[in-house]
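Hi U.,

Before I forget, here's the chain from the pilot set. I'm dumping it here mostly so it's searchable later in email.
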Amino acid sequence: MERRVSPRTKTSIPIAVCRGKTRYLARCVELSQSGLLAIMPKGIRDSAFEYVSASLLLDGGVVGVLLRRIRLKNELVAYRIVDIDDKSQSLLTEYLFDQLHSALPPALARTKKPPVAA
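Structure:
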């Protein structure tokens, strides 16, 4: 079993998963830079293929990723992010930063957001 590389942030965002020509809608419940935990439909959970392409539907845009299944427990599936392009990585990083920043106590949340590298 693989270990988590980065901490997960609890979330509730829609995720579109593609298996061949079939598209499934699911819900991501935890997200990190290296992976995610999602409530997946039966068609994806029961599949023998461990790789899926997916699109996370964030407020800032769509994050396209290639995922590899790590663990399956009931309707929850843990995935490792295998491939992500630079634009999607930037959107994911910004989203996670915003989520972590909003969870800070008000006194700590007043610090400025660091500039995003171009």
